[in-house]
Each structure stands twice: as C-alpha cells, then as structure tokens.
Amino acid sequence: MTTLYDFTVKNIKGEAWNLADLKGKVVLVVNVASKCGFTKQYAGLEELYQKYKDRDFVIVGCPCNQFGGQEPGSEEEIQNFCSLNWSVTFPLTSKVEVNGDNEAPLWKWMKESQPGILGLKRVKWNFEKFLIDREGKVVKRYASTTEPKSIAEEVEKHL
After folding, report:
1. Taking the C-alpha atoms of 89, 50, 45 and 98 in order, what is their torsion angle to the nearest 10 degrees?
2. For 95, which DSSP code?
3. Which reactions is this enzyme annotated as catalysing (predicted)?
C-alpha cells in the first residue's frame, strides 16, 4: 500500500526531498497561496506547528497557483513572503499543481485516499488540508474554510 513515504517532492529551493524523511511523524499537507483570502491561515498554521513540532508534528506547505492565480511569485519570493509576513518556519515545497493533467503524484494519492464531499477528488481551493498519521496514511481532509486551530484536537489524537 502506498504511503506518504513513497513520494519525493522538491523543496522551496528546488532540491529533491524524500518524504520518507518524515517517517514516524504526524504531517499536515496544505496547498498554500500568498494572495488569497485564506492567506491569513499562515499565522494559524505556524501556531499549530510551533505547538506540536517537538512532538513529531510537521506541516508541509505546497504553494499552488491554480486557483485564481493567487500564487504568482517565484519560489524565492514565496519563501520571503512567508518568512517576512507570517514568520513561517515549517517547510515549503516548490510550486505544485494539485489538480489536472499535471497534478503532483503526492496530491493525486492524497485525494484518492481521502475524497472530498460527495466523493469528489479534486481540490476546490487554496488552503485545503490533509492530515497524515505516523504510518504515512491520510486520515482526514479539511476544507479551505477550516481554521488551523480547529484541527489541533485531531492532531493530538495522532501524536
């Protein structure tokens, strides 16, 4: 069976990142954007990360420009924006597509593992979230409107 650990992505610097490095951790994967109405969720995501990172919890932010062109910057611009405006310290990947013909394999797997409402597999908007347990399996999917702080209880269950 496929798990998170079977995937390699590119980090924000364009370097290969084997997600097997996250073995044994609880992971929240989020498609992020700098110019979205939900961009303020960066603050809540960073707060969640700070609260649980010492208990083997990590957030992986995946910049995506597929929804309203709300992530137009280069990887360097995205990294600077996140650091300077939101003090983000959790890891970011290079820009990805989460739907369509060029969707990243990680996102295809997560959507198939945890379909949305009515069994829909597509990601609807920025800041959709997937919670992955210590075994590397997707256990929960959250809509863009779900505030990071409301996920804390579910994160704790898996720590």
Report:
1. 60
2. P
3. a hydroperoxide + [thioredoxin]-dithiol = an alcohol + [thioredoxin]-disulfide + H2O
> Has residue 36 been placed in a domain?
no
In this structure, is residue 32 part of a structural domain? no
Catalytic site positions: 36
| Integer Cα distance of 40 and 28 in angstroms | 17
Average pLDDT rounded to a whole number, residues 97-102: 97
Taking the C-alpha atoms of residue 86 and residue 101, their distance in angstroms, rounded to an integer, is 32
Percent of the chain with pLDDT over 70: 100
Q: Model confidence over 47-81: pLDDT tens digits?
A: 999 999 999 999 999 999 999 999 999 999 999 99
90 against 120, higher pLDDT: 90
Domain span holding position 50 = 4-26+43-63+75-158
